[in-house]
Design goal:
heterodimer; A: alpha/beta; Rossmann fold; Arc Repressor Mutant, subunit A; 4-stranded antiparallel sheet; 8 helices; 12 strands; elongated; B: alpha+beta; Beta-Lactamase; Helix Hairpins; Heat Shock Protein 90; 14 strands; 53% helix
Chain lengths: 226, 476
């Protein structure tokens, strides 16, 4: 999978490249709009990460030109401008998604996966991790064949973690996807922590191998213990 | 207008009243002249009448069918009769006598038939370039009816008249000039406070908002203007002060996590540790970065709210349902403290508003209530309607808020309990965000800490959305 990152801030560009490479993507980094445009129009790509505020030609302009030339690669816009008008302008120009800086890397990674997965079949109805079995349709959870009773919220939380198995999800992602709370100006983080703690009590406490992990400063992940 | 505009209020005022005064004076002068003329003519007519009577006594027939004046007597009686013009006409229209001074000219032609008015009374006419006033009268000499006409030069009268006109024509403009000058000076004096106000206002900048305009007489128009201006300045000063404090507080709040990031980073670089150690350090720095992000997000929300740039997406929904949702989010925090959270109220109460924003407001209130209620305490939520307003009460049984601090709880960055850590207490923005949200819906939040122990925060939202403030209407 080839991803082009057009980002003029060197630190951010390098960090994103490194992070994406660690996830197995092939990454090209362009520091200016012209350079990025040249790469995008001359090489086959699977996705473009495009910063809106660029010296010279800005991101929206580049995006509009690419779309006009019939280049339909999915584009994820990055910007510090958190204003509805900018979102609308970006989506109008043909962007597929939009991420506001500062973003958490797990968030970026999840959005990229979502864009690349587009049009591909949904994940299976029953997922197994270690001895945990989760049935998304029947909405049941068991471990070691033993039924675990979860509240609706806990089930959704676990479902989100399981669908992102092996990857870290941030509190922002949980707030948005599970609690449908878009504003970060809320006490929601405490609420999330309490729910994760309860989930852990039900899913992990009585079992030897732990599945729910806290990654300090980033978020949570579900994975089999090494 | 533009030419008038350039000469200023002072000039315009002066021009205006000088113009008005000229008009009045000209009318006055004209009527004075006219009345002078009338008086002079009356005097002249009086003299003419007297002279006619004198002359009547001097007329006699000369025997040849003409009339003669007994000049010897005339010279005796009327030495100054010389400049008179005299004509005597017979009833049939023949000239019986004509003064030598008249030559071939007559005094207005033959009089009409006897009994007609023409040829009697007084009239003016022009005679060889000289204005003449004459009087006509019927008379009889030895029983024969004749008509007399006696004329006197009007020139001295006109001379007097023109003298008067000249005197007025010279003195009026001088008087007007003097009055105009004085008026201009008075206007300048009256407007002088305006000059000093303008100079003072010029000195007022964002940094020197404490300056005020000088007010001479607070009761006159300029004083009123100055007062209004000063009140505006006071309001501006207050909002600048708020802004300054907000900026100071915000940078203080931002500095705290930044300091933590720096010191954690610096300390860890001076030590050598294993991967787990560094992982922990990086994690701790990320936690602070998250806090910074949240804080910046809150500040952004607030600055956009201040600018009226958060559009409300209104829909009608039952308030109780929204309250249950909000409580559903916060409930776990109450459970952790073994608190009891109850939601009661009228399920029929509906409001039209932005559900997410109002839910956010209530979540903040609930979080606050849970935070300040003791373990095993209770948080009660009541939903209802009263006087066209829907309300949500959030009652806690915490320690209450001291009277002096109640007004401040909605201020940004304000924490009632200073000893609480930031982690526990948040950044002190929650209640001000709630207050903004409710105000944006035309409502308000009331705080009641009297009566039962603990405090009640009451969100009041008008059920009729038309009651919302105008600026929010525009934001939609």
């Amino acid at each position: 999978m080839r991803i082009l990152v057009i980002e003029d801030e060197p630190k951010v560009g390098r960090a994103v490249r490194e992070g994406l490479q660690a996830e197995g993507y092939e990454v090209t980094l362009a520091a200016t709009g012209e350079e990025g445009f040249f790469v995008a129009s001359s090489q086959p790509l699977d996705l473009i990460l495009l910063d809106i505020l660029l010296p010279g030609r800005d991101g929206i302009e580049i995006l509009a030109t690419l779309r006009k030339r019939g280049i339909g690669v999915p584009v994820l816009l990055l910007t510090a401008k958190d204003a509805i008008e900018d979102r609308v302008a970006g989506l109008d120009a043909g962007a597929d998604d939009y991420l506001v800086k500062p973003f958490a890397f797990p968030e970026l990674s999840a959005r990229i996966r979502a864009l690349l997965r587009r049009g591909k079949p949904e994940s299976p109805a029953v997922v197994r991790i270690d001895t945990l079995e989760m049935d998304m349709v029947a909405r049941t959870v068991s471990r070691d064949g033993q039924r675990i009773e979860l509240t609706a919220r806990e089930f959704e939380l676990l479902e989100f973690l399981v669908r992102n198995k092996g990857r870290v999800v941030s509190r922002e992602m949980l707030a948005r996807e599970v609690w449908k709370e878009t504003s970060r100006a809320t006490p929601i983080d405490n609420v999330i922590d309490v729910h994760v703690a309860r989930l852990r009590r039900k899913v992990d406490d009585q079992f030897k191998s732990k599945l729910v992990h806290t990654v300090r400063g980033v978020g949570f992940a579900i994975r089999e213990e090494e | 207008m533009s030419a008038l505009g350039r000469i200023g209020i002072r000039g315009r005022l002066t021009l205006f009243y000088v113009g008005l005064l000229s008009l009045v004076l000209v009318i006055y002068a004209a009527s004075a002249c006219a009345s002078l003329m009338r008086d002079l003519r009356e005097q002249l007519d009086g003299r003419l009448d007297e002279d006619v009577e004198t002359i009547e006594g001097l007329l006699s027939w000369d025997g040849s069918g003409h009339v003669q004046i007994m000049t010897a007597k005339l010279n005796e009686d009327m030495r100054d009769l010389e400049p008179h013009f005299l004509e005597v006409w017979s009833a049939s229209g023949a000239v019986l006598y004509r003064s030598p001074q008249l030559g071939a000219q007559d005094l207005g032609g033959a009089p009409g038939p006897a009994g007609g008015s023409r040829g009697t009374g007084h009239a003016s006419m022009r005679l060889a370039g000289t204005r003449v006033r004459f009087a006509g009268r019927r008379h009889s000499i030895d029983g024969v009816p004749v008509r007399l006409r006696l004329g006197l030069s009007e020139e001295p009268l006109w001379e007097e008249f023109w003298e008067m006109v000249t005197a007025l024509a010279i003195s009026l403009p001088i008087a007007l000039l003097a009055i105009g000058g004085a008026g201009y000076a008075v206007a300048r004096r009256a407007l002088r406070p305006l000059d000093s106000m303008a100079r003072q206002a010029h000195k007022i900048t964002a940094e020197r908002l404490s300056e005020r305009l000088p007010i001479g007489n607070p009761d006159d128009e300029l004083g009123h203007l100055g007062r209004v201006f000063n009140e505006t300045l006071a309001r501006l000063e207050r909002s600048f002060e708020q802004l300054r404090r907000f900026t100071a507080d915000a940078s203080h709040e931002l500095r705290t996590p930044l300091t933590a990031i720096r010191s954690v980073g610096e300390v860890s670089l001076q030590r050598t540790g294993d991967a787990a150690y560094y992982r922990d350090i990086v994690g701790s720095m990320l936690e602070e970065a998250n806090r910074l992000t949240r804080l910046v997000d809150s500040l952004l929300v607030m600055s956009r709210a201040d600018a009226g740039r958060i559009p409300l997406q209104r829909s009608a929904f039952p308030l109780l349902e929204m309250a249950r949702e909000a409580a559903g989010v916060i409930e776990v925090l109450a459970e952790e403290k073994n608190q009891h959270m109850s939601i009661t109220g009228d399920p029929a109460v509906e409001v039209r508003g932005d559900r997410l924003i109002l839910r956010q407001a209530l979540i903040n209130l609930l979080d606050n209530a849970v935070k300040y209620s003791p373990e095993q305490g209770s948080v009660e939520v009541r939903v209802g309607a009263q006087n066209g307003e829907a309300f949500v009460d959030v009652h806690d049984n915490g320690p209450g808020i001291p009277l002096a601090q109640r007004a401040k709880v909605f201020e940004r960055f304000y924490r009632v309990d200073k000893s609480r850590s930031r982690e526990q207490g948040g950044a002190g923005l929650g209640l001000s965000i709630s207050e903004w949200a409710v105000k944006a819906h035309g409502g308000r939040i009331e705080l009641d800490c009297d009566g039962e122990p603990g405090c009640t925060f009451r969100m009041r939202i008008p059920i009729e959305p038309n009651a919302m403030p105008k600026n929010q209407e525009q934001a939609l």
